[in-house]
Amino acid sequence: MALVNQQSEPNPAIERRRLCALNDLSADMPKRIIIDDLKLSVSSINGAVYAVNDMCTHANYSLSEGPVNPEELTIECWKHGAEFCLVSGKALTLPATRPLNTFATEIESGEVFVYLPKKGQQ
Length: 122
Ligand code: FES
What we know:
- The chain has a 4-stranded antiparallel sheet, with no helix packed on it.
- It contains no helices and 11 strands.
- It is globular and about 35 Å long.
- By secondary structure, it is an all-beta fold.
């Protein structure tokens, strides 16, 4: 079982949701996955899965259409080139200045799960 950005204590305000099969994710391009009304950009890199908000914080373009850098663990917005850290969500380059939300993920028996705030807890 692989954990990314996993909190150490159980949080009753967080729920685990299935994202997809691990085989549905490619190593070089993120995948856009929508759960309820939340749009996520999901990247599989070296056995770990990273889930961040899909919308660039600069101008609301989908990050899932841009490349990831597996060595730096970053994602680049295709529109104006801002880079974000997939681990922390931090905006690393202009023109974006605000961070992305990141979400803990878990891989279990070939399935990918994400931990999201329960409805009404966001
Ligand atoms: S919309 Fe992403 S950098 Fe401008």
